[in-house]
Amino acid sequence: MHKPETKTAGFGWLIGFALLAILLIVLPHLLSFSQQEILVMLVIDVLLVCSYRLLTLTGEWSLAHAVIMGVGAYASALAAKELAVPVPLAMLVGASVSAFLAFLLSFPLFRMKGFYFLIGSFAAGEVIRLMWKWSDLTFLFGGPKGIKRIPSMPDLFGIDFFEPVNYYYLCLIVVAVSLLILYRVERSRIGLTFHAIHWQDKLAESVGVNTFRYRMLAFVISAFFAGLAGALYAHYVGAVAPNRFDVEEMVYILIWAIVGGTATFYGPIIGVVTLTIINEVILRALGVDEMRPMLYGALLIVSILFLPDGLESLVPKTKAWLASRKERRENMRTEEVPAE
Amino acid sequence: MTKLSKGGMDRRQFLSTTAAAALLASVSMPKIAFGAEKTVKIGFLAPLTGEVAAWGKPGLDGCHIWADWINADGGVKVGDEMLKVEFVPYDDEYDPSKARAGAVKLIKEEDVKFIMMLGGDPWPGASQVAEREEMLVSTLLPSDLTPDTEMLLAPCEVHPIYNVTGVEWLAENKPDLKTAVICAQDDALGKPSVATYLAAFEAAGIEVLDEPIFFDPATTDFAPIMSKMLALKPDIICLDTCYADYVHPLTEQAFQQGYKGQMISCTADFYQKMVEKTSKEFMEGFIFQFPDFDDPKLNEPHVNFKKPNDFYQEYLKRYGAGEWSAVSWEYASIMDLWADAATKAGTTEPTDVLAAMKEGGVGKHAFGEADWWGEKLFGINNALVGLWPVVAIQDGKAKIQDFKSIPDWWDQHSDLLIKHMKALGQMYYQRT
Amino acid sequence: MTAELFLQTVVNATYAASYMALIAVGFVLIFGVMGVINFAHGELYMAGAYTVVALYADMGFPFFLAVVVGLIFVGCLGLVMEVGLFRPLRDNPLGGLIASIGFLLILQTVAMMGFGVRMENVPPSTQDKIVFLDGAVLTYQRLYVILAAVGLLSALWIFLRKSKFGWSLRACAQDREAAVLQGISINQTARIAMFIGAGLAGVAGALTAPLVSPTPFMGHSVIVTAFIIIIVGGIGSLEGAVLVAILYGFVHTFVTTMYDGTLANIVGLLLMLAVLIVKPTGLFGAKERA
């Protein structure tokens, strides 16, 4: 009785994923040109927010994530531009530099927890960002103007990656693989330990878990993928500047994660997709440019007040609702049968 | 799940498009009445929200006046047709990725024939799109120009080169002032401007005391900076190309800390408020580069900007007395140049318009006949320079003192400017 | 550094310390009592400045009337936040943070639509100034800020020491659950804390409006300063906030004068990091907690 049920469930998942894959492949061709551009950014943001969620599993909320994305972007841009490293390799360099920086930052930052970590990570991020801006380091980071004319992804097999659709597919593959890795990490023993640290860090410590090492591991992995997102961004847009990675950007990451919900893997993805569609497509189409921040703010408040567990909490509810409807229909049918 | 979200999106899109349609219909009713006429669309890709919006929004306002006037006259003559002009704005939020999406939308979806940008940070995002689509783009910041930006023009404000005119005029009229200090915010506007002022002061034989002071754009309290400058006891305080948010508190601080000497600045937006905050006596003789357009000197025959005095009055009438700023007229003046070139070319195709615009290496700049110039500084002759006004405050009102020629200065002192630009890393081959 | 520049810098620093203290104390009070990081604190400061823009600069009411209205108006904004946002999210500290970000965006946009994106100009209410021996200058306009900081913060201190409300405020700040067991109404205490905290930010904005040029985005830089002060001073410690505001005001002003402003910001942040690493409870936090 038990076995076939999981089998059908697995089968359902498979169909679901196949449909999703088809949708994602077809999607850019259904959109307008400028929406394709937004789509590329959206896929990059998905990676950004999912990498952020990994760190939140350990219970820590960082305010340095946007800057760490920037570290990947800067490192990748500099590697490709100044050291002539091939772009795909430079992206990995960028991601690794982010990860390494996270490793270094772990030592001071994970002496703190909770609110202190939040603020500490903010300070660390701001120091890095101010370094980019500082006039004494302009020769390296380009000062407040940042780095321009970053080499773009070279053509591969005659595919022109300047075209948003092609770059979208590239990002889609990179992000899909990254998400798979993030998912596997979460489901592995390491991921379970992250959860354990979140809910019972004293207990975890008492059974011999080195919580510092696991926190650091979460931070480093999360930074790696944030850096990768930054590198994907840098080589597409062709320019990075310190203000692109400021508090405001960080606030957006937080908002996506929280409005979407962080209890499930898909929560942040729902958050970033929904909010980007609302902000970039609907509010722009309404022609309310000046009012956009206010509507966004109102939306935030409404969602945090009435959907405190994020949009993801709607999924089981909808499922339950659909199931109950189905059940009712089936009940009706079974009731109808004898009537006939 | 996928189906559900897709269905949801469709409904949202439907709602948004119906709402947008309703909104558009209500807003643009009068235009639809003329619907049968042909129009040409012009893109306005600049920050309309956020902190940099002050450099975009007033320009769009000015363009609306320009469009209303030109359309009332029938439109722009292109070939045998009269084309009405319609501006399509896109808020780039001063972000390169949004500028890229905006450029794509304007070019591929709106079919605009020309895009006006503020330039700066967002430009690198839009540049590749513009290049591939062969779109003609204008910027207010010539520091965006490089040898390969063939379709990018700086046709109005060749910041900061015109700042030399103010210093030149000052040296001619107040020869006893011998020392200066400079401060600027540390950013894309401040740096090249400092190099220009350094060159201009050196050319005029004025000594700059100490290093220029760069401050963080996030600075809120300017008292320490002014204290530091006043401690050097200069004859001239130069505020470089500080934004109005900095010029005002700096000037006020100079006044409060007892400074009595000369001040010079690139801009002095809302200077009336500065007069209110300090005193008429203190502000007397304050030199800057941006005239009010009710200035009678703008009616001199060499000025190409159409009906400057009326434009100023109309602007104040529509948007309020306190809203006039340096960028209010600039985008509109670029449109004059474009309309002229489109008429000359007989088409709105960007490459043809560009060719017509640059024909003979000269162009009709807002303040007079000017040269397409810039090769030595930007690597390309896509900046239009000629005369530029020197403005000073007299009895609480900005008055044009003189129009000075930038090319004349350049012919004598180009080596100085290049030297200082190089020292601050502002030459086109140094800008990364 | 000449004696004259030194003296002027001391004057500048005193002013900087005063307005930082006004803002930081409100921020600390709100965090201490309610456990919420009020990200919109900078925008409350902005709202105070715009009250003066509207009432004093535009409509011509007396300056000090506008300042008082600014205090009350922004205090009421604080009440709205407490009742509408923070109370329903009492058990969700991150929720309070997000809600305050939403509120921040709304305030910014309202200011932008009501007054335009451009900076506002507020003429000084007086141009009188005190000239010290060596020529260092302190304008009355800046003196008001210093006086307000000293006056209001002393009043607050007495209020917290002497009144019953002050007692419950401190009790909530130290241990909320224990406070409830003592029969203290959390909601009422939170309302008072929010009103005072927001009102102090509003007064700071109102008084500095003629000194800075108000823009809808002026709150940005304020919040970072508030963060630094709250951490170095120790969370929940009002005395710590005041002392660190003074310390930070002086360090920042002197580094700006002698080197540059970006370096001053970096120094501030590094100071904060150092304190977080060495003594996360802040320089003055432990005493309060014991």
UniProtKB/TrEMBL annotation, chain A:
State the GO CC annotations: plasma membrane
UniProt superkingdom: Bacteria
User: What terms describe the molecular function in GO for this protein?
Assistant: branched-chain amino acid transmembrane transporter activity
Instruction: Name the residues that span the membrane.
Output: 12-32, 38-55, 62-80, 86-107, 114-132, 167-185, 216-238, 250-282
Q: How does it sit in the membrane?
A: Multi-pass membrane protein
Database matches in Pfam families: BPD_transp_2 (PF02653)
Q: Which UniProt keywords apply?
A: Cell membrane, Membrane, Transmembrane, Transmembrane helix
Instruction: From the Swiss-Prot or TrEMBL record, state where the protein is found.
Output: Cell membrane
The molecule here is called: Leucine/isoleucine/valine transporter permease subunit
Lineage of this protein's species? Bacteria, Pseudomonadati, Pseudomonadota, Alphaproteobacteria, Hyphomicrobiales
From TrEMBL, chain B:
Q: Which family does it belong to?
A: Belongs to the leucine-binding protein family.
Matching entries from Gene3D superfamilies are given as: 3.40.50.2300
Gene Ontology BP term (one): amino acid transport
Question: What protein does this entry describe?
Answer: Leucine-specific-binding protein
Cross-referenced InterPro entries: BCAA_transport (IPR051010), Leu-bd (IPR028081), Peripla_BP_I (IPR028082), TAT_signal (IPR006311)
Q: Which organism is it from?
A: Methyloligella halotolerans
Q: Which UniProt keywords apply?
A: Amino-acid transport, Signal, Transport
Where is each Leucine-binding protein domain found? 39-375
UniProt xrefs under Pfam families: Peripla_BP_6 (PF13458)
Q: In its keyword annotation, does this UniProt entry include Signal?
A: yes
| PANTHER family xref list | LEUCINE-SPECIFIC-BINDING PROTEIN
TrEMBL record, chain C:
Keywords for this entry? Amino-acid transport, Cell membrane, Membrane, Transmembrane, Transmembrane helix, Transport
Where would you find the membrane-spanning parts of this chain?
21-41, 61-85, 97-119, 139-160, 192-212, 224-251, 263-286
Set out the biological process GO terms recorded for this chain's protein. amino acid transport
Q: Which domain of life is it from?
A: Bacteria
User: In the record, what terms sit under GO molecular function?
Assistant: transmembrane transporter activity
Pfam families xref list: BPD_transp_2
Membrane topology qualifier: Multi-pass membrane protein
Cellular component (GO) terms are: plasma membrane
Which compartments does it reside in? Cell membrane
Q: Which InterPro entries match?
A: ABC_transp_permease (IPR001851), BCAA_transport_permease (IPR052157)
Q: What's the chief localization of this chain?
A: membrane
> Belongs to which family?
Belongs to the binding-protein-dependent transport system permease family. LivHM subfamily.
PANTHER family from the entry? AMINO ACID ABC TRANSPORTER PERMEASE PROTEIN (PTHR11795:SF445), BRANCHED-CHAIN AMINO ACID TRANSPORT SYSTEM PERMEASE PROTEIN LIVH (PTHR11795)
Designated name of the protein: High-affinity branched-chain amino acid transport system permease protein LivH
The organism of origin for this protein: Methyloligella halotolerans
Top-down, what is the taxonomic lineage of the species of origin?
Bacteria, Pseudomonadati, Pseudomonadota, Alphaproteobacteria, Hyphomicrobiales
